[in-house]
Structures are given as C-alpha cells and as structure tokens.
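Pair request: fold both.
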Amino acid sequence: MCASSPPSSPRVVFVEDEVLLLGLLTEFFKHSDHFLVHGAYTNGNEALAAICLDPPDIVVIDLQLPDTNGLLIAQKIYEALANPPAIIVLSSNMSPMVVKQLLRLGVRGILRKGVSAAELLAACQQVLRGGVCLNLSSEHMHDLVCASALDDTINLTSRETQILDLVARGRRSKEIADALGLSVRTVDKHRENLMRKLGVQDVGGLVRYAARCGMIPQQKEALV
C-alpha cells in the first residue's frame, strides 16, 4: 500500500502476467499519490477471487493471461457484484469482435498494450470520473465502426467464454468437464452452441476465433 496516499484515494487492482510490467505499474501508481494499489496479480483466477471478496474501485486487466482471459474475468465480476469496480482492459489485439463484447459488458476502458504508465493513470482517472477511454488507432476505430452487423449478434455467456478459452488452450471435453464440474455432454453442448454462434465448423475454428479476438496468444493459432 502507499502510505503517502490519502485514505480517500481510489483503490486499484492490476492483473498482468508480465512480472516486470506489473512491477513497474504497481510502483508508478504507488508513488503517484492518486491511487492505493489494492492488489497486483499474475494469475487471473486468483485475482478474480480476491476482487469479488473485496472489490476495489478500479481493475486493470490484461486480456491475455496464462490461466484465463480478461474478457471472462470482466464477465464474472459483473455477474458476481451488484456494484462492480470500473474495469480497464489492456490488449495488443484490438479485434472489433472483442472490443464490442467488452463494451457490451460495461468495460469502461480499452487500451493498447504498451501505453505508458502515465497514460494508464490518466485513463483510470477519466474512467473514475464517469468517462469511457478507448485508446484505439484510427485503423482499429475504422474496423470497429465498419464491423459487420453479424458481429453485433455475437454475445457469449460467461460459461461459453470460459469453455471457448479452455478449448482454445487445448483442453479436451473430459478435462473441461472435470475442471468445471460439468458433464461431458453439457460441455459438448456448449461447444456446439459456440460453433453455431461463431459460424465455425470445428475446434480449429474456435481456436482461430479466440486467437483473432486476442483471448489467447497469437502463437496458439499454429497448433491448428
């Protein structure tokens, strides 16, 4: 915690798997005198449990995490909390599909991975004042505006996002069923629904969709 920050300073939690970046952001915010660093996590599921137990004012999440993804964490936060924190997502992938999904959820900020700590701090302040912060290039903004109407109909539940994430990480139906406490038949049904919603024909299509959306690192696509 930052002892120099006044007690009324908003509390921020960082969820970022790059340890060096996490440390730099944490130290910058601690010494800014504007925020209290309420938590810093490299593990998404661990962060989710802590956030739901003791919600901060704002959460900054990397979209791509080793154990889960920022989209799913945001979905679960909004489902679990009546008064959820403001959420900012960092991503190197600005696919219109994932940007629309995040905005539909209520995410208040979407920033390109690599923004400076000062820019991120300013975005956090803007979001806490009730604003929305989209740090998109003109190309990405054009893609978002021109995205087909079909993308607007894609709205995944948190369970579907969770299963899509696990499928894209190479988990088989039995492994997913065991991890989530579901039957294999239920997992297969969710997978069928995902294929129908996303317009793909096989598991490879699901993996490619997840990679395009930035839910998993792009190199995962080479597995297909």
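--- second member of the pair ---
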Amino acid sequence: MFDNMYPTLFLPGLFSFLCVHVCYFIFFIKNINHTRPWNQHWTQLAAATLILVYVVEFYVINHEAFRELGWETLLYVAAIGVMGVSAAFRDKVQNPKTYYKVLAGALFFILSDSLLAINKFVNPFEFANLLVLLTYGVAQFLLITGISEFVNSGLLSAKKTVDDVKKSH
C-alpha cells in the first residue's frame, strides 16, 4: 500500500503475507488430519473447487501484469489458493459456527489480496487502500476468532483423547 513511498518493501511484505498463508494452511491441514472430516458435504467440495478456479483464473487472466514478479506472484497465488482450499475442507459438522467464520475469513483474505494485486499490477482504482485494509481486517478478525473459538471449544483435546484410547486397545 505504501509502494510509492517505499518501493523496496513490496517483496518483503509479499514474503511476510506468504508466511501468514502458509501458517494458516499448516493449521488447517493439522485440523483436517486431527478431526478426520472424511464424511464431508458436497458444499465443501464446491467451495474448494470455486476457490481453486478463482485463484487459477485470477492468475491466468492477470499473469501479463505480474510479469516483473512472475514466479513470486505464482508462488503467492498458489499459497493463497491452498490456504483457501484447506479452510474449505475443515470439519464443519462438529462446530459449524467456527467453520463458517474461518471459511469467510479465508475468502476475505483472498479478496483483500486480489484487490491489492489489481490495484498494484492491473488497474489502480480509487479507494483501493481503504478496501484492501477493510477486507484484510475483516479476514483476520474472522480467521482469528474462528480459530480461537474452535480451539477453545475443546474439540481438539476431545478428539485426541478418543484417538489415544483407540490406540491403547
């Protein structure tokens, strides 16, 4: 957002946000492995598919604009896509409230990054910084509150106890 004042900070900022996406992805994958939500609903597959199609299309449509940072943006788009897809595949049966908060947060994070990329690489637009900050803030609020509520719900420890009991028999 402050690229015009500090142009050298864009890549470190991109790397920082990439790390955040990877951290969320790791948590979501651990959450998926822990709760083993293999009886998922078709809506989760649909949400994951739509997220994947969106991020691939976003990159394909705009890849010429990303030319100066080609592999960096490809890596970033892949990371945000994996983060969004893994958020969609979390268990929604045990705690639907936290599931939808986290999924909405992931979608707002994708939207925020999309707005930022459009403004920087494709076509600058009025109020871009405000929209990027607003969608980013909503994303982080939903992600953090959803994850916190899930962790505090006790489902993680309850599932671990069940798995430990099964292993001991």
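Observation on the second member. The two ends are 56 Å apart (CA to CA).
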